[in-house]
Amino acid sequence: MIRRKNEAILTAPTLLWLILFFVVPSIAMVVISFRPASIYGGVGEGWTLDAWRALGNPNYPVILWRTVRLSLVTTVICLALALPIAFVLGRMQGKWRTILVMIVIVPFWTNFVIRVAAWRILLHPEGMLRQSLISLGIIGNDTLLLYNEGAVLMVMVYTYLPFAILPLYAAAERFDYSLLEAARDLGASGFTAVTRVFIPGISRGLLTAMALVLIPALGSYVIPDLVGGPGDEMIGNKIAQRTLGDRNLPQAATLSVALLLITLIPMIVVYYLNRRERTHPA
Amino acid sequence: MSDFLVFENVTKRFGDLAVVSEISFSVEKGEIFSLLGPSGCGKTTLLRLVAGFMKPDEGRILLNGRDINQIPPEKRPVNTVFQNYALFPHLTLRQNIAFGPELAKKLSRAEIDTEVERMLDLVDLASHADKKPSQISGGQKQRVAIGRALINKPEVLLLDEPLAALDLKLRQRLLVELEDLHEEVGITFLYVTHDQGEAMGISDRIAVMRAGKIEQIGAPAAIYETPVNSFVAAFIGDTNFLSGVAGEELDHEYHNAVLDDLGILRVYKDRPILQGDRLTLSLRPETIALSRARPGTLTENHNAARGVIEDMIYLGSLTRFRVRSGARLFMVESQHGRFFLDDEKPLQRGDQVWLCWHANDGYRLENFSEEDRQLLSFPGGKE
């Protein structure tokens, strides 16, 4: 009984924090999505489905689909790049390992918006990179490196790659690499050993990496805003426009709830996969 | 039949350090061959060279007449039982054992299942087949590791300190199981261990290694009773080193020798001795008898010396004495009589005793190095 009480006291601050800053705002957001917009940019009285009906606008499904597609592709590319990096990092010892992990972390020391803005300079039509590629004949005169979906995807991969590397590295560090020798001893080629033993061995890190890339990627809005073209908007941009531009808060809330629902799906999947693993321990 | 697994001048270097240098020997088909030595002697490296996880810098390894240097580990007809078992944690015991046959793709699913069941029975784990490795004990893991290796029907089974992580009783039990298993499957075992008891117990032959070289190869009894040098004598069991100078020849079997601090004693001559040669004998502690009075029935081939018991350690099945005789210490082991019923009072610390041994029990070493004394339980032969 006393232990129960202690536990309750210990969890109370966290619980309170979550209720105040997560549960209450989320509920408020859902509530606002059913309110009318007031002409002064606030939330009006009464109840309406206007904001939800506006989702029928043929633009939204296209943007939602683009958001999901870009985020999934980003996640797949990030995981594919991070896996070999984590594999090597986990196997390394001592000084070099520390240096390489630092290299992964160092970009965080610069503000995220500044890093994305830096890409604008790098990829700028008059920038050195594009001009060099044109003079080398690798790209044509009419090819742009900036303001298109390719640029958005590349900067998204650049931004979220560390979030894939770090959990995978943490898992690889705990992985017993002698298991790969055991697999080869039993007849597995190097590649088969990795797919049948290494990847299942770091599966929890893989799930974490997936969630850590996919969820923020779904909410991206700075990246498409800065390096994307007008046709590369993601749902985050629309939410920002509705909030800051049109001052239509119910509409912004509706889009946010839609995004929240989309984000919940991968989270629930990760949660259940993790729990299954815990009840059948590895 | 013989020379099944052959090492020819095998050298392996890590940087400048030769972990294994110019080693040549051969293992016969079907035998249990042990590589025994202290840690860092290169025994595990030799095993890894056979498994294919490393390649020798020089020399070659032949298996059944075929040079295997260029064959990757997954294609070699050998399997390893790893020291830490290296079971796949995400697979059940059944799936662990099926790992090899599934990859080999030589058998149908049904045939694999039959083989796996047979193997589970052989290693006595059928009732745990659907557990994960984290749910079973160390001894069971060890049996899974053996089953997982044996199911591939390797030509040689490589065992890397397979019992090192287990407690003594379990180790002894599994050693017997391993020997039974060997009889059942008849596969050649290459067994790496630093535990001389394990090696003596299981092996047909033992190679004693030190610093990347093989010191001696032979049957356990030959290694124990006729060690070539002081390292082998001291590493395998305990012993007393008696050094001295050869005196006159007594007959074609025995020689006199002036042993340091002990005077003129008799030495068995299994190889020619020249008068004036420096020699060192290895005298095992259990070959020395202790008594209060000078034994009356000594033959001329017995040696005797006086001493005082300085210390004794009661170990149950035997008692280990440290006996000082002049400037030197002897280690003596003796089994018990009937503790309460002996006519004589049991020996006590401080008692004056006679040490007595047959000249044949002192084995003359080919080489003696003073530093090997450090391997003994009582290194201080002299103080």
Question: What does it look like?
Answer:
The complex is a heterodimer of chains A (282) and B (383). Chain A is globular and about 70 Å long. Chain A has a single domain (62-279), classed as MetI-like fold (Orthogonal Bundle), CATH 1.10.3720.10. Chain A has 13 helices and no strands. Chain A is 74% helix and 0% strand. Chain A is mostly helical. By secondary structure, chain B is α+β, with helices and mostly antiparallel strands. Chain B has 2 domains: 5-229, P-loop containing nucleotide triphosphate hydrolases (Rossmann fold, 3-Layer(aba) Sandwich); 231-375, OB fold (Dihydrolipoamide Acetyltransferase, E2P) (Beta Barrel). Helices cover 22% and strands 34% of the residues of chain B. In chain B, strand 12 (254-259) and strand 13 form a beta hairpin. The longest helix of chain B has 18 residues, at 168-185. The A-B interface holds A 176, 178-179, 181-189, 192, 196-197, 200-201, 203, 280-282 and B 51-53, 72-75, 78-80, 82, 84, 86-90, 99-100, 103-104, 132, 134-135, 148-149, 152.
CATH topology of the largest domain in chain B: Rossmann fold
Alpha-carbon Rg of chain A, integer: 23 Å
| CATH class type of chain A | Mainly Alpha
How many helices of chain B?
A: 8
Number of domains of chain A: 1
User: What characteristic shape of chain B results from the CA principal axes?
Assistant: elongated
- Tally of helical runs of chain A: 13
Order of helices and strands of chain A: HHHHHHHHHHHHH
Question: Judging by the overall fold, what is the CATH architecture of chain A?
Answer: Orthogonal Bundle
Given the C-alpha coordinates, what overall shape of chain A results? globular
Helix content of chain B: 10-25%
Total beta-strand segments of chain A: 0
Structural class of chain A: mainly alpha
Approximately how much beta-strand content do the residues of chain B carry?
25-35%
Oligomer state equals heterodimer
How many individual domains of chain B? Answer: 2
